[in-house]
UniProtKB/TrEMBL annotation:
Residues that coordinate or bind pyruvate: 205
Lineage, uppermost ranks: Bacteria, Bacillati, Actinomycetota, Actinomycetes, Kitasatosporales
Similarity field: Belongs to the DapA family.
Pfam families xrefs: DHDPS (PF00701)
PANTHER family recorded: DIHYDRODIPICOLINATE SYNTHASE (PTHR12128:SF72)
Coiled coil: none
Protein name, entry field: Dihydrodipicolinate synthase family protein
GO molecular function: 4-hydroxy-tetrahydrodipicolinate synthase activity
Domain of life of the source: Bacteria
UniProt source species: Streptomyces flaveus
SMART domains in the record: DHDPS (SM01130)
Active site: 136, 164
Keywords: Lyase
Length: 296
């Protein structure tokens, strides 16, 4: 792992283990972070949407970051610092900095459909915390689209060093490379991993490695090296699971796959609800098939 660009490689957007009473199990979370690194992952991204940050108390959210840092070291932890207000996001970036993290991941303003000036002001404010920022483009959920031209502007101002790209539009990789060649593109959706890796991605903020880290890391490494003989068959095998990362029920799906693969996934907090029986059956069948194929 390169210290000055800690977002490179496979960084797992960690699922957060909750007990049956929906309290956070920090011991299980620490063990999970360590297990991911032992299985070849380069680091973790706590307090992302997969980590259910929106339904955590401020105390829980801070302790999640501190727990990850204690488990695997701050250089391997890139917390999500999204919040409705720029001042609050800046405070979360400062908390990450003080906990020993080397970078943070930041959504654009997501309380409303922000315009370009608001987006620039938001990233400018959070930059004041002094940590490198990886932008997170998720126009599906946030209704704010960080198009390549805007990302190039953010990078040109020195506000961002990378972007987790979740639009699903793989064509953007090439436009972004033309407009901002020094901006690191990170794969943001598991089900376009191969396409973005071939297009020059420098990292993967990943969901499914929570359940299948070793196979996922093997897939990523082969893909970025252009070893399609290894990557393509593995990608085909894993894709029935990877595509759940882009569905509304991704947290429930990944936690269920963790349970089936022998990890602890556990419940989710409301307003999320358990999968429908047909959804559960689909995730279960795909996970069991992957486990039977030796991918867990």
């Amino acid at each position: 792992m390169t210290d000055h660009r800690p977002w490179r490689g496979v960084l797992v957007a960690t699922a957060l283990p909750l007990r049956d009473d929906l309290s956070v199990d920090y011991d299980k979370f620490a063990e999970h972070c360590a297990w991911l690194v032992e299985n070849g992952c380069d680091g973790v991204v706590p307090n992302g949407s997969l980590g259910e940050y929106q339904v955590l108390t401020p105390e829980e959210r801070a302790k999640v970051v501190e727990t990850a840092v204690a488990a695997i070291g701050g250089e391997r932890v890139m917390p999500g610092v999204a919040a409705y207000g720029s001042a609050e996001s800046r405070r979360w970036a400062e908390q990450a900095r003080d906990a020993g993290c080397r970078a943070v991941m930041l959504l654009p303003p997501n309380a409303y459909r922000a315009d370009e000036r608001s987006v620039l002001a938001h990233y400018a404010e959070v930059t004041k915390a002094g940590l490198p920022i990886v932008a997170y483009n998720n126009p599906i959920d946030t209704k704010v689209d960080l198009v390549p031209e805007l990302l190039a502007k953010l990078h040109g101002e020195g506000y961002i060093q990378g972007v987790k790209e979740f639009s699903g539009d793989v064509r953007r990789a090439y436009r972004l490379a033309e407009l901002a060649p020094e901006l690191d593109l990170l794969i943001g959706a598991d089900d376009v991993l191969l396409e973005l890796a071939i297009a020059g991605a420098k990292g993967w903020v990943a969901g499914y490695p929570n359940a299948l880290p070793a196979a996922s890391v093997e897939l990523y490494r082969a893909a970025v090296e252009g070893d399609l003989d290894t990557a393509l068959p593995l990608y085909r095998q894993l894709h029935p699971l990877l595509r759940w990362d882009s569905k509304v029920e991704f947290v429930q799906a990944i936690k269920l796959s963790m349970d089936i693969a022998g990890r602890y996934g556990g419940p989710v907090r409301p307003p999320r609800v358990p999968l429908l029986p047909e959804q559960e059956a689909a995730v279960r069948a795909a996970t069991e098939k992957a486990v039977a194929a030796g991918l867990a």
